[in-house]
Amino acid sequence: MLAMFELLKSFLFALLMVPVMITMILSLIYGFGKIFNLISHKNDHSSSL
To answer: Membrane-spanning regions, if any (predicted)?
Structure first.
């Protein structure tokens, strides 16, 4: 019974961590895109920022 509870607990933890990790990875990709976009458009004076 205790092993079943441990298995269920770890399964719920893994299930909870999946969207958290997906959000972290996507925000990291978005952040790197923003940073490289700013770097690449730094010399562009015609941009209306």
So the answer is: 12-32
Confidence of residue 49 (pLDDT cuts 50, 70, 90): low
Q: If we measure between CA atoms, which residue out of 28, 34, 27, 29 comes closest to residue 49? A: 34
Give CA torsion, residues 13, 18, 21, 25, to 10 deg.
170
* DSSP conformation class of 1: -
- Over residues 6-44, the pLDDT tens digits come to 999 999 999 999 999 999 999 999 999 999 999 988 877
In sequence order, what E strands does 1-49 have?
none
Query: Of 32, 9, 31, 34, whose CA–CA distance to 1 is shortest?
Result: 9
